[in-house]
Amino acid sequence: MDSEKVVLTVSVTGSIGDRSSNPALPVTPKEIAKSAVDAGKAGAAVAHIHVRDVQTGKPSMEMQLYEETVCRIRDHSDIILNLTTGPGARFIPDEHNPSYPGPGTTLSSPQRRIDHVLALKPEICSLDVGSMDFGPHIFINYLPHVEWMAEQISDAGVKPELEVFDMGHIEKAKHLIRTGRIKGPPLFQLCTGIRWGIPATPESMIAMKGLLPHDAVWTGFGIGPTAFPMVAVAAVLGGNVRIGFEDSLYIEKGKPASSNRQLVEKAVAILRLLGKVPATPDEARKLLNLEG
Q1: What is the distance between the alpha carbons of residues 78 and 197, in angstroms, rounded to a whole number?
Q2: Which domain holds residue 166?
Q3: Structural domain count, the chain
Q4: Is the pLDDT of residue 250 over 70?
């Protein structure tokens, strides 16, 4: 495979932000699916999928929303599907008794977090391996739960994408690899710029890359104002890249993006300026070791 080929993932909607920040944010399964398909036509080879409650626009874990979204995408595109397992890990302590969950807590069983993956069998799903302060809440990924989810996901024939938000998370991911719960070559996502995680700087991404197993395939991203700069950094360092409404609601400072397609088109332009070419879905399957 040509070294200039780069896998571009579109992070379609995420679980943070709403239409008060950008009216173009996709919410319904139809909107999410169309946005993913359009982004694929612009150069994205992978669609990272969250779903949202149709009435409130808030993050959801409902199977029927995943089913409709996945079916709509599969009917119109060969883009690689990457379903999130992140929802269900949020904990906010009760104000008066911090041993109990307060309003906004979504902490769920590991089974609940992967039900949609086992049922729909995407080619990839995210697997958050580490716990951390995540903005205003605590993001809990208890090791025995992560171990069990890794086993179940791998047994279902789905490739786990190891989401790492700080240096120690990479060491935890290596434990999963050493113990055979993650089959090689492993797939990593270097997540930078999330508040209280590793900052979105070239130095941070270089440090994280340096800790990865020698055979790792990786993607990197930043969020907010760092989203497009980190597209360039990841590509220069030999990684794959990610962009989308989950990472940035803006196409440039002060200007809301009109669509995921517009964000992807700008990322593709950055790649081409660097002498890189966005991989097709079939090329991405080879680069990400999804075949066979």
Answers
A1: 33
A2: 5-287
A3: 1
A4: yes
